[in-house]
Amino acid sequence: MSHFRALAGVLRGGRVWGCQWLRGCGGGPSRRWVDPRRGCSSGSESTPSAVTSSSSYVEEMYFAWLEDHKNVHESWDAFFRNIQASSPSGEAGERRPSALLQGRVLSHSPDMAQKVIRGHHVAQLDPLGILQADLDSFVPYDLITTIDKLGVEFMFINNVDQCQWIRQKIETPGIMQFTNAEKRTLLARLIRSTRFEDFLARKWSSEKRFGLEGCEVLIPALKTIIDKSSAAGIDSVIMGMPHRGRLNVLANVIRKDLDQIFCQFDPKLEAADEGSGDVKYHLGMYHERINRETDKNITLSLMANPSHLEAVDPVVQGKAKAEQFYRGDTQGKKVMSILIHGDAAFAGQGVVYETFHLSELPSYTTHGTIHVVVNNQIGFTTDPRVARSSPYPTDVARVVNAPIFHVNADDPEAVIYVCRMAAEWRTTFNKDVVIDLVSYRRFGHNEMDEPMFTQPLMYKQIHRQEHVLKKYSDKLIVEGVVTLQEFEEEVAKYDKICEEAYTSSKDEKILHIRHWLDSPWPGLDEEVLQHIGQTASSVPLEDFKIHPGVSRILRGRADLVKNRQMDWALGEYMAFGSLLKDDIHVRLSGQDVERGTFSHRHHVLHDQEVDKRICVPMNHLWANQAPYTVCNSSLSEYGVLGFELGFAMASPNALILWEAQFGDFHNTAQCIIDQFISPGQAKWVRNNGIVLLLPHGMEGMGPEHSSARPERFLQMSKDDPDHFPEFSGDFEVQQLNDCNWIVVNCSTPANYCHVLRRQILLPFRKPLIIFTPKSLLRHPDARSSFDDLAKGTKFKRLIPDEGIGKSKPSPEQKAEKYANAELVWCQEEHKNMGYYDYVRPRFLTVVANKKSIWYVGRDPAAAPATGNKSTHLNELKRFMDTAFNLSTFQGKDL
Prior knowledge:
Catalytic activity: N(6)-[(R)-lipoyl]-L-lysyl-[protein] + 2-oxoglutarate + H(+) = N(6)-[(R)-S(8)-succinyldihydrolipoyl]-L-lysyl-[protein] + CO2
Keywords: Glycolysis, Magnesium, Metal-binding, Mitochondrion, Oxidoreductase, Thiamine pyrophosphate, Transit peptide
Largest sheet: 8 strands, mixed
Structural class: alpha/beta
Radius of gyration: 32 Å
Number of strands: 22
Number of helices: 30
Distance between the termini: 91 Å
Mean pLDDT: 81
Subcellular location: Mitochondrion
Enzyme class: oxidoreductase
Shape: globular
CATH topology of the largest domain: Rossmann fold
CATH superfamily of the largest domain: Thiamin diphosphate (ThDP)-binding fold, Pyr/PP domains
Main location: mitochondrion
């Protein structure tokens, strides 16, 4: 039995040793011996030997030990030393360990290796005691005498220092100690979390609130993370979370005024500010306050976000990155992000994976995010057995070598210790870390839902489950940390706070939506920008060898400048350069944006002889210019667009652009567009000036590389087709202000330059959707003169046909000229796509329905474009012939 108790050290506290090292380092047909102090370091490689049986596993460990006793954990070292000491003479020198170990380990534990591999499954993580049922054979090993309430996955991390750091934190005896003062603080926070939910349940028993019951420890957990981070120098925390527990976090972490929260439950509530508002468990908040544990100022920002659970993840990261960028916080020592997740969404929604893969990319890293998973062990009505294929909901985090701490949410001290460790990890290594709060959901998906319909056995156990506050308060009373009277007084104290706020909320008849904003903006700089007539057409670095093809492009730019002309790329260059001159930061992100999908941009030049030597000419335009950030993104639309949206939230004095590789590809980011960009101002009164560049054009490239789906953006535009606007004053600006976003399709480089500059010059911020060209990028007729950027020029909403010659008819002459004209809408897109359905009713309003509109274009279709070149050309010829020879048009009057 002594040998088994020695081996039990391998599983001590649910931690994983030995075998996880092998899995973390190995791969393919061979395994490499592992030194626990050196991580995945060198050593002799073994013959092929999968760790699938106790025999092969122990043999591998034994061979490692024979080579160097330090290659294995001290528990294995002691085990093998004992075995060797008790072996018959001569047996100890045998290189094959089978006879040495026969009857000592293998005969008693035939599947021990499997249990070692899943060692963290042995920890008592589930407060309901049902988790093992989902893990089938992974039940506690009966010879282990002490089991913790936490387990750690980290041996897949291929960094020795990081592994050793975690080992010291979890293996040092007596390290998880709390003072009486710390225990009392934890109890007070648990009281607030629990009694807040109880208060809402009593006052609004028939209202949905998506309460935190079953994982009330989340509140002290988050506060601990913030405390530890504040002590380490963090003074700004950006947070994102789903709806469950949001009101509690707002009340007890962000410290939103309770009367404003309770006011939200009033059905007679009126909104004080423009906008539709959103449900109370979607709203965010920004708050500056003193952290009482550190006596330091700290800013807490909880992002507003819709029900599309994990969609907020990249938005939070983008906003955190922006705050770090503008503060010069290059290591994330002042600004950090915290993401709270649900278990089902964390495992099921791909944007989680996309966000993780941004975590260490230079232009996207926030230098470590702390992820907290509120693991209810259930989705809406779906249990984990049919919700995911992985053992844990957190397994996706392994792709970036993030340590994962699983902890029983009914053991508050274990939770707090893990949260301290996670905060220290982030401070020390500036890498992501995951806390898996294994808990339960005391009620249904919402408080009106009946969970017994689908999870009867689980909820029978939940109904018997003692509340964590009762468990922990009883524990502290027994320990003498608090008395029963002190506990009851603390409860009564918070209950009184809630009651007073409830009374106050009845006088608060108006909800001030601005209170819910996740951050304010400073005043806008309205200084008129000066156009520039020069741009870089050479390499500003000496001894920098560029590709001959790029040399030709730069020479072409120089010729254009000499002739006072610009193509599309040069028009963009002038817009960016003029903004940088006036201290406006410009950030362009997306797939292959540095060169440009169509090889037209080349904002990053690469030395052809020196690896990784690059030049960004845009950053060499002016002595005191703002920085220009251009960065190729990962192959992600959903995650990266969300990131850039968050970045644009941080400041109005920046031009933030996301370019799709092809316009069609924005469909994989449609959630960000539908849930954040289109309705953002209406729901949360949040202005955002993000620019989407979407290549669009029907050029025979097939259904996936043609249409940016302009009809979708126009359909979601908030303007009335039956209302004719008043053309008085600055009606153009007012019309833009009234709409939810601006949608343009520029046809000249000058107009493209103007609309980008106007995005900053406008006295407000609206998302800007630009359908950009492809083949027209190099068309010799798609040029603009420098005169089109001269003083007094501006963006043209409509470019009329002026005819041949220099004469320009006045507006009255134009009206007379077109008085008897037929109205024809011609587009290259199919009839059920493009712009036709949007413009038709508006044209009819303009002519007071006294005229009809003819349609010329492609017929309705299910796919946005054909991929057959011949079909494409035939379609093009047909509608172009019709458009320019209407006498042959036999279509129906529409």
